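Your task:
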Amino acid sequence: MDMLKAAIFEAPAWFILFFLAGAYIEFYILAGFSIILVISNLPKASAWTE
């Protein structure tokens, strides 16, 4: 019974921790993709400006 109470009280902390970790991972993945897109589009952008 005590273990069940501990699990119930610790669950929100673990959920928040995993949620924040997922948000950071998602942010870095999106940032990485955007940087890759910008780098891959640089030659096209320079060609457009010429």
Remarks:
- The radius of gyration is 21 Å.
- The chain is about 95% helix and 0% strand.
